[in-house]
Amino acid sequence: MAKYRNESLGVVNVGGQFAAPKKTLEVDEKAPGLARLVKRGILAKVDGAPQASEGGDDEREALAAQYEERFGEKPHHAMKADTIRQKLDEAGDTKPAE
To answer: For the chain, what is the radius of gyration of the CA atoms?
Structure first.
């Protein structure tokens, strides 16, 4: 049994188990279709170490708070931390129009 993370935007069924987007599941290495899902990038093997996308949630939340303070509105829910950082850098020290 090994852990795999669903990297797609949809629910995945592998080995009779369902995985919601960005969730992990333990599945038998010989499960039908597993190799194909890994090859296509839908599932990624989790080695126990935090993934790059995990842990970024705290950073994104901090940047979102700065964004909201600067622009007076929350960033779009799909905006990634790098994009928020870029928008904040572009704005520089300017204040939002009131």
So the answer is: 18
For the sheet with 43-45, list strands across it: 24-27, 2-6, 43-45
Please name the residues in contact with 68: beta carbons below 8 A apart, sequence gap of 6 or more.
74, 75
Question: What is the band of 91 on the pLDDT scale with cuts at 50, 70, 90?
Answer: confident
Burial of 56 (0-12, 13-18, 19+ CB in 10 A): middle
Predicted confidence at residue 51, as pLDDT, reads: 46
**Beta-carbon contacts of residue 74 (< 8 Å; ≥ 6 apart):** 64, 67, 68
Q: Are 12 and 42 in contact (CB under 8 A)?
A: yes
Chain-centroid distance, C-alpha 15: 24
**Res 69: pLDDT:** 92
Q: How far is CA 84 from the centre of its chain?
A: 15
Q: Which amino acid is at 87?
A: K
